[in-house]
Amino acid sequence: GQQLNQSPQSMFIQEGEDVSMNCTSSSIFNTWLWYKQDPGEGPVLLIALYKAGELTSNGRLTAQFGITRKDSFLNISASIPSDVGIYFCAGSTSGTYKYIFGTGTRLKVLA
Amino acid sequence: GAVVSQHPSWVICKSGTSVKIECRSLDFQATTMFWYRQFPKQSLMLMATSNEGSKATYEQGVEKDKFLINHASLTLSTLTVTSAHPEDSSFYICSAPRVDEQYFGPGTRLTVT
User: Fold this and answer.
1) Contacts of B93 in chain A (CB under 8 A)
2) pLDDT tens by residue, chain A, 111 residues
3) How far apart are the CA of A44 and the nearest CA of chain B, in angstroms?
């Protein structure tokens, strides 16, 4: 099945550092969602983006909907140990609820 | 946020048997639900769209006779893995849309021995 390219694939950072990850697609999307998944659990929605250029924050998390509508970015500021997990982007085209998922970014935070 | 539940959370079955997994939207109605499969250290792959009152639509490469989907009500979709084999062992996750957002269940880990 189709997947979005997400980078980096994995990151090891020190507690307190900022984190950036992005997701790119060959297709145009109308909605971008960002999720975090802990081992053995389902993904939990972090941020939803609906318009090109939109910048949305959720606490220490900020995500942006790229103006080309083919990419999205997620930033985490001042990382803490509980930020550890796998982050997925997901994109959807207009009129459907079907989402294509990114390949995931595995984040590890060193205390 | 909305709540989606799955049952069971994990199941072990023998090769050749069938397993049913339930997905429920607890505080909202969902005419459409989605089933994903996730292999270890991989992303979620959409398997099929479950439609209340009509047949499910399957993604390319997913065998509809092997993965039976029934959307029995506005809050319940079931996925039955028929004649399971070890290669079907995976993490199965359902989701349901509410407004423009997708909410995921906690997943069901299937192990076929």
Assistant:
1) 42-43
2) 567 899 999 999 999 999 999 999 998 999 999 999 998 888 899 999 999 999 999 999 999 999 999 999 999 999 999 999 999 999 988 667 788 899 999 999 988
3) 7
Q: How far is B47 from B52, CA to CA, in rounded Å?
A: 16
How far is it, in rounded angstroms, from Cα B74 to Cα B24?
9
Q: Amino acid identity, residue B95?
A: S
Counting beta carbons within 10 angstroms of the beta carbon of residue B12, is it exposed (0 to 12), middle (13 to 18) or buried (19 or more)? exposed
* H or E element that contains A56: strand A55-58
DSSP letters along B22-70, please?
A: EEEESSS--SEEEEEEE-TTS--EEEEEEETTS--EE-TT--TTTEEEE
* Cross-chain CB nearest to B43 (options A48, A50, A101): A101
